[in-house]
Design goal:
Layout: E1 2-8, E2 12-19, E3 30-41, E4 44-49, E5 55-59, H1 64-77, E6 85-90, E7 101-102, H2 105-112, H3 122-135, E8 141-145, H4 155-158, H5 164-168, H6 178-192, E9 200-206, E10 210-216, E11 219-223, H7 246-254, H8 258-267, H9 270-275, H10 280-288, H11 292-316, E12 321-325, H12 326-331, H13 333-340, H14 352-356, E13 365-367, E14 376-380, H15 384-396, E15 404-411, E16 414-416, H16 419-426, E17 434-437, E18 444-453, E19 458-466, E20 473-475, H17 478-484, E21 490-491, E22 502-506, E23 509-513, E24 516-519, E25 522-526, H18 527-532, E26 540-545, E27 552-562, E28 568-572, H19 573-579, E29 585-591
C-alpha cells in the first residue's frame, strides 16, 4: 500500500511517500518521494525535493495550508497519483492515544482538547489534518503520536510530586520524539543481531529538539521530556531542565508575565539563549574561534546529555547500547565524543577513528565503540516518516485477527530455585517434591514452601515452581514489594541482571540472591497457535478483558512462543485486582503494528 506522510510545523511542512508491505515490515519498505516546504513568509518559502532532498528552490506558498494544497501537483509531477492512506505526525496524544488512531471528527475533537499540553505543536498538526482531509477526502487519515511510545513508562517516571488536584487536571510527564526513539531502538537491535526485548538501550535524539529515552524489554521506561517538550536536555531554542521557581522570581524581579516567560523558554533559550544561535554548527565554529559563550554552551549541552545517560543506566540496572540520532547526533563527532568521555566506568568507550568516519548511507546503523568495550555505541539516521507510514500500514492491516480469545491466568507470588538455592534452603542434595502439575508441560508446583525476608517484613508460605533453573528468580506483585521493603523492577522472565537482593528462608538455612522481579505480563503460546495467528516469539500484543467487571485493556503484552506451551496469558494479582477478575476469564487479543524481523 502507498502511504503519504505529513510532519507539519508552524513554519514548515515535511512530507514523504512510502510503499509499504505490511506482512514484510520495515525492511522491505520503499521510500518513493521526499519533500519539504520551509520558512513560510510573505515572499514564499524554500522547497526541497527528492529522496536525498538535494534540489533546493523557491516556491510561492506563504502558509502551511497553501503548501499542503500544492502537494498533489508536486506528486503528480513525479508520477505519483494513487494514495491509499495519509499519516500525520501529531506531537501530543495525552494519556489516551496509545497507538495510531484513525482521524474521525470525534478523534480530532479529542486531540484539540489536548492543545494546552502542546500549544506550539498540536495546532499546526491539526491545521494540516483539516486541510489534508479536504484535499484527499476519499482515503483514510491516521494520526501517529509522539507521546504514544512513552505511555509504557511506569508511574514513578511519569508522576510529578505536586498536589492531587493538579495531577487530576492532567499534569504528568509524557515524553516526545517517541516515533524516532522507537525506530532507532529497533534499528539498533537489528544491527546488533539481538532481540530488542533483551537489550537495555538509551536513545539520544539530538537535533533542534533533543531528548533522551531509556528503553528496556522493548518498551520505553523513561524519557527526558515531560508534560511538554520543554523538559530535559538543552535544545536549539528550548531551555531543557530549569527550576520551576524561576516563574515566581522573574515575575517579582523583572515583572514578566507567565506567557512571556513560557515563550522565552521555548523560543529564546537553549543554545540560542546562551550564544544567540540555535544551530550547533554555528556554535561549534564560534567555540573553535575562542568564543567563551559558545564554549560554555557546548560543555553544558554535553554535560546534560551525559547526566541523563548515567541516570538512565542506573534506572535500568545497566546499559547494553547507546544510540545517537538526530541532526547533531548523526553529524557531530565532537559532540558524540564529549558526551561519551567520562563514561568508561559504565564500560562505554568510543573508538576515535570509527567515530570520525561514520557513513549513514542506506539507513546504516554504524557501531563506533572501542573494540572490546562492553557497551555498544551506534549512530543511525532517524526515520520518523517511515515509522509513521509503518504504523499506519500496520493499523490498516493488523498482523492478526481481532477475534482471537485466550484464557487469562492470575500468577500469584512464587519462586524458581537453582540447585544452589535448594541446597542452602533444604540441605545438600535435597530433591523437591512435585505436588501439582501446571498447565505448562513439564512444570509443577512443589510441596515445599519458602519465606521471603526483606528489610521491612516477611512473606511466608511462598510457592516453589519446578523444575530447577540455572538462576533463582522470585516473582512478586508490586504490593508484595512494598510489604518486603524492596523495589522490584518489571522484567521479563530470565532478565535478572541489576535486580534487588533478597533473602530466602527454608527449614535448613537461608539463601541470599538477586532475581526479585515483577514479571511483565506475557502470553505463553504454543508454536501451532503462533503460526495460526501470524505471531512470533518476542511480538507484543494488546489484550482486552471485556468480560470482567471493569473491562480493561493491557498493552505491551509479550508473546513467548515454545513448541509445547499451553496458550495462556499470565498477569499478577495486582493486575487481576485492577481488572476485577474473580474467576475464569478470557481476553480478546489484538496485535499491535509490529516491526517484523527485528
Amino acid at each position: 500500500m502507498r502511504v503519504l506522510v505529513f510532519n507539519a510545523g508552524s513554519s514548515s511542512l515535511k512530507f514523504g511517500v512510502f510503499d509499504m508491505f505490511p506482512d514484510e515490515g520495515l525492511a522491505q519498505a520503499k521510500h518513493v518521494f521526499k519533500g519539504s516546504f520551509d520558512r513560510f513568509g510573505e515572499g514564499g518559502c524554500d522547497y526541497r525535493s527528492g529522496v536525498e532532498e538535494n534540489s533546493v528552490a523557491r516556491a510561492p506558498h506563504t502558509t502551511l495550508s497553501e503548501a499542503i494544497n500544492a502537494v498533489p501537483d508536486v506528486l503528480a509531477e513525479e508520477g505519483i497519483t494513487d494514495i491509499d492512506a495519509v499519516g500525520h505526525r501529531i506531537a501530543h496524544g495525552g494519556p489516551t492515544f496509545t497507538k495510531a488512531a484513525e482521524l474521525s471528527d470525534r478523534t480530532l475533537d479529542e486531540i484539540r482538547e489536548l492543545t494546552p499540553l502542546a500549544p506550539l505543536h498540536n495546532p499546526a498538526n491539526l491545521e494540516a489534518i483539516d486541510v489534508a482531509r479536504n484535499v484527499w477526502p476519499k482515503v483514510p487519515h491516521w494520526g501517529v503520536f509522539d507521546t504514544s511510545f512513552h505511555l509504557s513508562n511506569p508511574a514513578r517516571a511519569t508522576t510529578y510530586a505536586i498536589p492531587k488536584d493538579w495531577r487530576a487536571a492532567g499534569l504528568r510527564r509524557f515524553g516526545f520524539h517517541g516515533t524516532s526513539h522507537k525506530y532507532v531502538a529497533h534499528r539498533a537491535a537489528e544491527a546488533l543481531g539481538t532481540r530488542l526485548r533483551d537489550l537495555r538501550l538509551i536513545s539520544l535524539h539530538l537535533g533542534n529538539g533533543a531528548s533522551a529515552c531509556a528503553i528496556a524489554g522493548g518498551a520505553s521506561v523513561d524519557s527526558s521530556m515531560g508534560m511538554t517538550p520543554l523538559e530535559g536536555l538543552v535544545m536549539g531554542s528550548r531551555s531543557g531542565d530549569v527550576d520551576p521557581g524561576l516563574f515566581g522570581f522573574l515575575s517579582r524581579e523583572l515583572g514578566l508575565t507567565i506567557p512571556a516567560i513560557e515563550a522565552a523558554l521555548y523560543q529564546d533559550s537553549g543554545l540560542k539563549g546562551l550564544t544567540g544561535s540555535s544551530d550547533m554548527r554555528d556554535v561549534e565554529e564560534r567555540a573553535a574561534e575562542g568564543d567563551q559563550d559558545a564554549q560554555l554552551a557546548i560543555n553544558l549541552y554535553a554535560y546534560r546529555a551525559r547526566k541523563y545517560i548515567g541516570a538512565y543506566a542506573a534506572a535500568m540496572g545497566g546499559l547494553d547500547a547507546l544510540v545517537f540520532t538526530g541532526g547533531i547526533g548523526e553529524n557531530s563527532p565532537s559532540m558524540r565524543r564529549r558526551i561519551c568521555d567520562g563514561l568508561e566506568f559504565l564500560g562505554l568507550k568510543l573508538d576515535h577513528d570509527r567515530n570520525l568516519s561514520v557513513s549513514l548511507e542506506g539507513r546504516a546503523a554504524v557501531q563506533i565503540q572501542a573494540y572490546g568495550a562492553r557497551v555498544n555505541v551506534l549512530v543511525t539516521e532517524t526515520a520518523e516518516q517511515l515509522m509513521i507510514a509503518h504504523e499506519v500500514a500496520g493499523a490498516l492491516f493488523p498482523a492478526n485477527s481481532p477475534s482471537i480469545r485466550i484464557p487469562v491466568a492470575v500468577s500469584a507470588r512464587h519462586v524458581h530455585l537453582s540447585r544452589a538455592a535448594v541446597d542452602a534452603l533444604f540441605g545438600p542434595g535435597y530433591e523437591l517434591t512435585p505436588d501439582k502439575p501446571l498447565k505448562q508441560k513439564g512444570h509443577w508446583d512443589a510441596r515445599e514452601r519458602v519465606s521471603l525476608h526483606g528489610p521491612k517484613g516477611d512473606i511466608r508460605n511462598v510457592a516453589i515452581l519446578g523444575p530447577l533453573r540455572e538462576r533463582t528468580q522470585i516473582e512478586v506483585s508490586r504490593t508484595d514489594g512494598f510489604a518486603l521493603g524492596l523495589d522490584a523492577p518489571i522484567r521479563q522472565s530470565g532478565v535478572l541482571d541489576g535486580t534487588p537482593q533478597i533473602r530466602l528462608m527454608g527449614p535448613e538455612g537461608h539463601h541470599d540472591t538477586d532475581g526479585l522481579i515483577l514479571a511483565s505480563r506475557h502470553i505463553h503460546m504454543n508454536s501451532e497457535d503462533a503460526r495460526k495467528h501470524h505471531l512470533k516469539d518476542g511480538d507484543f500484543v494488546s489484550v482486552t478483558l471485556d468480560e470482567t467487571g471493569r473491562g480493561l485493556t493491557f498493552d505491551k503484552v509479550l508473546v513467548r512462543v515454545s513448541e509445547n506451551a499451553f496458550t495462556e496469558m499470565h498477569i499478577d494479582t495486582d493486575e487481576a485486582n485492577a481488572a476485577g477478575i474473580t474467576g475464569a476469564v478470557e481476553g480478546a487479543l489484538q496485535g499491535e503494528a509490529l516491526i517484523r524481523g527485528t
